[in-house]
Amino acid sequence: MRVLVVGSGGREHALAWAIARSPRADEVFVAPGNAGTAQIATNAPIAADDLDGLVAFALAQAIDLVVVGPEIPLALGLTDRLQAAGVRCFGPVAAAARIEASKAFSKALMRDLGLPSAAYRVFADPDEADAYVQAHGAPLVVKASGLAAGKGAIVCQTVDKAHAAIALIGRERAFGAAGDEIVVEEFLTGAEVSILAFSDGATVRPMIQAQDHKAAFDDDRGPNTGGMGCYAPAPLLDAAQLAEVTQRVLQPTIDGLRAQGSPYVGVLYAGLMVSEGDFQVIEFNCRFGDPEAQAILPLLETDLLDVLDACVDGRLHEVELTWADRTSVCVVMASGGYPDKYHTGLPIHGLESAAALPDVVVFHAGTRIEGEAVLTAGGRVLGVTACERDLPAAMRRAYEAVRLLSWEGAAYRHDIGAKGL
Ligand code: AMP
After folding, report:
1. N or C: which end of the chain has fewer CB within 10 A?
2. pLDDT per residue over 249-268, tens digit each?
C-alpha cells in the first residue's frame, strides 16, 4: 500500500514509524513531515491545511490510504474532499470532527446522549455570559467553542477571572472566530486520563489508557502546553471501569454520530476526569493525541496499517488489538522558552547515541535538516520514548536517552511518569 500521513509533529512521526513497520506498507509519504519522518519515509512539502495540494498529491501518487494527524485539516473537511476524489482516508469527515472543532456541538451531543459530563451553558453574547457567571459564582471553566490550539479553555477560580476570560474570548477575540460562542462549564476535580479508541463508524476498540502532562514545568507548574510528556498504560481506571467507558461513553458517541448521519471513522479521543472511582467526560478530540500517540503506538503489537485499513473499510469488528506487556514513557524535549517565545535553527546533538539505546525511539516534532545537521524548528522538538518492563524502568531509560540529547536552551520536565508510580 501507498500511504500518506498528514502532519509534521511527533504524533505524525510515530504514525509513520508504526505504519512503515507493516509488511503491507510499500511506500510511506509524510506531508509536510520533519527531519525524523525524512529518515523513514518520503516528505512532501505540502502544508497540513493545504487541502487542494493534499488531494492533488494523493491522486498523483496513487495513494491507497491517507492518515490525518492534526485536527485542523479534519475540521476543514480534508476527509470529505478525499472521499469525493475517491481516495480512502482515516479520520472523520468535517461533520463528525465537530466533536472537537465545536465545543457547543460536543457538549450538546454529550447532553443528548446522557454521557457523564460537566453541566454547561453556551452564550453567543458575552454580556449574557457575564450575567450568568455573576449569578452562578466560581469556580468555573470558560471556553472558546472553536479550535484554539489547546489554549481556549480557561479554568477560573474566581468570578473576576471568569469575567476576564469572557472578555478575552468574546470581546478581545483572542481566538478569533473560535470565540463566536462561549461555553461556561461546571469545574470538575480529579485526575485526568486519556482514552483513545479506533472506530469504523460502528465498532469501537479502545487503546491502552494514557496520561499526558500539560503544564510546562515539574509538579504541574507553569503555563499549559501542547503536552510535555506522556506514559502508558496509566493505572487510573481498572478493567471494569475501562469497560464502562466503552459502554457508557465511546459506543454511545459512535452510535449517536452514526444516527446523525455522520459516521465517525478515525480515532475518538475522550479526555476524562477521574475522581473516587467515577469518571466524567471533559472533552472529545477527533484524532490521536500528541504526545499520547508517541507513548501508545510503540506498545501496539497489532499491525497499525491493518487496524487503520479495517476502520476505513468498516470491518473493525474483525480486528483485535494486542498490546505489549510493557510500559512506555515519552519525554518531550522543547525549545527554551516554550510555550512562549523561543529560538529555532539550533543544532541538535546526540541523536544517534540516544537512538542507539535499547528500547528507545526518538520521535521528531519541530526539527528540520540542513546539510548534515538536524536543527530545531519548533516549540516541541523531540519526543523521547522508552518501552520497558515497568514504569520505573521506562522512566529511567527515557531520561538516560534525554541526557544524551542537547541543544542550546533545551527544556524538559524531569517527572514524566511520576504521576503513575
Ligand atoms: P479542553 O480544551 O476542553 O480540552 O480543556 C483543556 C483542559 O482544561 C483540560 O485538559 C482540563 O485540564 C481543563 N478543563 C477543561 N474543562 C474542565 C472542567 N469542566 N473542569 C476542570 N478542568 C477542566
Report:
1. C
2. 999 999 999 999 999 999 99
